[in-house]
Structures are given as structure tokens and as C-alpha cells.
Write a structure and sequence with these properties.
Elements lengths: L3 H26 L7 H26 L3 H31 L6 H8 L3 H24 L2 E8 L4 E7 L1 H27 L4 H31 L1 E2 L1 H29 L5 H4 L22 E6 L5 H14 L3 E7 L3 H6 L6 E6 L6 E2 L6 E5 L3 H14 L4 E6 L1 H8 L1 H15 L4 E8 L5 H8 L4 E6 L2 E4 L2
Parallel strand pairs: 1-3, 4-10, 4-11, 5-6, 5-9, 6-8, 9-10
Antiparallel strand pairs: 1-2, 7-8, 11-12
């Protein structure tokens, strides 16, 4: 039996690893707003597999019973092989269909790609053969090993031939899927999701390295560091999950969601002023629209939004929940919402709709991140409507809002994007209003007579 002190230290390591894995799996599971569902589902399944592996090893360390040790290799390798097959499925799916896939589509795609179908079949046959070999010939024995906490635990030692064969098999398990993950990531257009998927490939390469170090420590030095390896592994995959989730919020959100015809009825004529001048806003510049709140200004803003759709732009609206613009534009097909609320602590997908992301209320840092990621991640021309400068001045103060507008202008510069800010006419004093207007090269005004071009 392992000494109580050593058992407690080992148990603490496993519990820390379990807690990190559970949190990572939970937040990945809550990630609903993504076009990369195969990667998401795969991560969730892998977390489940890792939990099972940890449970098996915890039982080995805690009891070391002969009955358990006789089946431990079958359980350990069997669950590990399941993880390897999951990795391959996600890698093939990501490579053949870079913007995401489902398990059903993966196998449909495989039927049309003979090489990958053969490799997939070889992968499955190899895992089954290794498991059958373990069960039939039992090329292992139970040994005593020193654990990292100074105790003695039961472990398994494998025949040299089998260990070498499994090493070669694991190299194949690593090299082929990780190569596909890298090649699939390179084909992803969204730069943030590309980095996240490259991180996934690095994560599996790292996890294999951790496994090999743990195995070498046991076979060459009789030292069992499995608990430490699981802690490192859980942190590794926790970072992978964090990076994927953070990237997927934007990657899935900024992908084109529909054609113009599906979004809203096609508009034959562009919005014009009462003098007949066409309202046109230039890419790469901030635009200001001052509105008279005593009129139905949101209807005129909707006309401008329809112009954006006619230009085949992805339309994003940043507004507080319940504002006049939010209430109207949230009903327009194709409009994607960044909904600000006091309850939001950071950027998070909505739990009620897939075209909405919740963000904190007028948090300048988060708003700049939203602007930068949206303009940098989208694969289509973008129009972003911000509601409103006047509310932001009230919540954050003039200085913070003014600095935010200047930084927003720098982010938008050179981008294929129109960024339109709403300001309530008369809400600011004359000096503040003049300073705000000075930030915007293009300016509109909406009043009782409709839209007017100021400059």
C-alpha cells in the first residue's frame, strides 16, 4: 500500500488536474457560437477521455490491486486509442472542410478522398491490433515504482519489443493527425481561428511529449510521475480550450451568415437626402450620425443599414439591450448583435440566439477589442453601428469616450469597413460636441426632415 502522505500528495495532483479539465470542458461545452463545431465537440470528448484515464490511474495508485493491474494496460491503452481516433477524426474533418464539419460529414468526405480513407482505416486497424495483442499475449508485468512524492506504487512494465512497437505506432498516431491539423489550420481564412487550431496541433504534440517523458521516467528510472504529467496535461489543454473558445466567439460570429437575399429584401434604390444626394460612407473612416431623439430616427438608421446589405457587407450593431436601435435592428435578419449589459463581465456568446454576443456595458477596453477582432476577423466587407456616443459619455466620462473614439479611428483606418457612431443631438455641451465631431471625417444628421449630409 502507498503511504498515506504520498497518497495524499498524489490525490491532490489528480484532483487539481480533474478540476482544470472539468472547467475547460464546461466552458468549451458552453461555446455555442462557432462554425467549428467538430473541433468543439472533439475537445469535449477528449476532456471526457482524459477524465477516464485519470480515474483509471488514480485507482492504480490508490489500490494497486492484482485484479486491477491485470487489466490496467488494456484500459489505459484502450482509452488512449479512443483519444487518438478522436484526434484523427477532428484532424481529417478540419483538413477536408476547414470552416467546420460534423461527424456525419467527415465520413461522407472520406468516401471521396481515397488516400485519407485508407489512412483512417489503417489507423483504426492499428489501434485494434495493438489492443488485441495486449489482451492475447499480455507483454507486460506488474512492478513496484517510486512515485514523485517519495512513496512506492504499483506500475506496469512492458516487454522491450512491445514498447518499441507501441512507440512507432504512437509516432504514427501523432505525425499524421498533427500534420493534418496544421495543414487544415493553414487553410482557415480567419487568422484568430487559424492560430487557435495551430495551438491545438501544438497541444497534441506537447501532450505526446509529456506522455513520453512520463513513460521514460518509469521504464528507465522506475519513477512514476503520472500525477504530475496529468496536471501539466490539463493545463496544456486548458490553454488550448481557452484560446479556441476565445477565437471561436469571433470566428463563428463574423463568418458570413447568409446571402443578401436571405437577410432582408433587396433594396433597389439607395438612401438619399431630401435634396436627392445619395448617402455614401467611405471605408476605413469613422462616420458620425447625429440624431434628433424626438423623431423616429431608428427608421432612418435602418435605411442606412439596408444600404450596407445592398453593398454586401456584414452588419454588426453594438448597443445596450433595450435601446431604440437595439429593439428595431435585433429583428432584422442578418444583423449581428454585440449586446451591452451590466451583467456581462467579458465577451460571451448569448444563451438565447446564435447571432448575438454579450459584452460589458460601455467598457472601452472590451469595445476596442470587439472592434479590432471584428474588423480583423471578418472575411467580408463590414459595417458596424455603435449606439451611442452620448450614452458612453454618461457612463465613462468625456475623456474616456474621446480617447476611445481616437483609438477606434486608428483601428478602422485602412480596413474595408464602415464604422458608424450614433450621437444624440443636444445631449452634450457645445464644447464636448464640437470635440467629438472633430474626430469624424464623415458626418450625417437625422431630424424631422430625414437624413442630411453635414460633410
Amino acid at each position: 500500500m502507498i503511504p498515506e502522505g504520498s497518497l495524499a500528495i498524489n490525490a491532490a495532483g489528480y484532483l487539481v488536474a480533474l478540476a482544470i479539465t472539468a472547467v475547460s470542458g464546461y466552458y468549451t461545452y458552453r461555446q455555442r457560437l462557432t462554425a467549428y463545431q467538430l473541433v468543439r465537440d472533439f475537445l469535449i470528448l477528449v476532456y471526457g477521455v482524459i477524465v477516464v484515464l485519470m480515474a483509471v490511474d488514480m485507482a492504480r495508485v490508490a489500490t494497486g490491486s492484482p485484479a486491477l493491474m491485470s487489466v490496467y494496460p488494456l484500459l489505459s491503452f484502450g482509452v488512449g486509442f479512443v483519444e487518438a481516433i478522436l484526434l484523427l477524426t477532428a484532424a481529417v474533418g478540419g483538413y477536408l472542410r476547414p470552416n467546420g464539419s460534423s461527424y456525419r460529414l467527415v465520413f461522407k468526405d472520406l468516401r471521396t478522398h481515397t488516400f485519407h480513407l485508407l489512412m483512417f482505416a489503417l489507423f483504426i486497424v492499428g489501434t485494434l491490433a495493438a489492443e488485441v495483442y495486449l489482451a492475447a499475449l499480455r507483454p507486460f508485468s506488474t512492478v513496484n515504482a517510486h512515485d514523485f512524492a517519495g512513496g512506492t506504487v504499483k506500475a506496469v512494465a512492458y516487454d522491450t519489443t512491445f514498447a518499441a512497437t507501441i512507440g512507432a505506432l504512437f509516432f504514427f498516431f501523432l505525425a499524421y493527425p498533427v500534420t493534418l491539423l496544421v495543414l487544415g489550420a493553414v487553410r482557415v481564412q480567419n487568422p484568430q481561428m487559424r492560430r487557435a487550431q495551430l495551438g491545438l496541433a501544438a497541444g497534441f504534440a506537447g501532450s505526446t511529449a509529456i506522455y513520453l517523458v512520463s513513460s521514460v521516467s518509469l521504464f528507465d528510472y522506475g519513477l512514476d510521475v503520472t500525477a504530475v504529467a496529468y496536471v501539466v496535461l490539463s493545463v496544456f489543454f486548458g490553454l488550448v480550450a481557452r484560446n479556441f473558445r476565445k477565437a471561436a466567439v469571433f470566428a463563428g460570429f463574423v463568418l458570413p451568415v447568409a446571402t443578401e437575399a436571405e437577410r432582408t429584401p433587396a433594396k433597389e434604390e439607395r438612401t438619399t437626402t431630401r435634396e436627392g444626394r445619395q448617402v455614401a460612407l467611405e471605408d476605413g473612416q469613422l462616420a458620425l450620425v447625429e440624431v434628433d431623439t424626438s423623431v423616429a430616427y431608428e427608421e432612418s438608421v435602418l435605411e442606412v443599414v439596408r444600404d450596407f446589405f445592398a453593398e454586401k457587407r456584414g452588419v454588426f450593431v453594438v448597443s445596450p439591450k433595450g435601446s431604440r436601435l437595439h429593439t428595431l435592428l435585433s429583428t432584422v435578419p442578418g444583423v449581428r448583435l454585440y449586446t451591452m449589459s451590466e451583467s456581462a463581465r467579458y465577451i460571451a456568446p448569448s444563451t438565447t440566439r446564435t447571432d448575438e454576443v454579450n459584452i460589458p456595458l460601455f467598457d472601452a477596453g472590451v469595445l476596442l477589442e470587439v472592434l479590432e477582432r471584428t474588423l480583423g476577423s471578418s472575411t467580408e466587407p463590414v459595417a458596424l453601428v455603435f449606439d451611442s456616443v452620448s450614452d458612453m459619455v454618461i457612463y465613462t466620462g468625456f475623456q474616456t469616450c474621446y480617447k476611445f473614439l481616437k483609438e477606434a479611428g486608428a483601428i478602422a483606418s485602412g480596413k474595408k469597413a464602415v464604422v458608424l457612431f450614433v450621437m444624440f443631438r443636444g445631449a452634450e455641451d457645445a464644447r464636448s460636441a464640437a470635440a467629438i465631431r472633430g474626430v469624424f471625417p464623415s458626418q450625417l444628421r437625422i431630424g424631422p426632415d430625414g437624413i442630411e449630409i453635414v460633410r
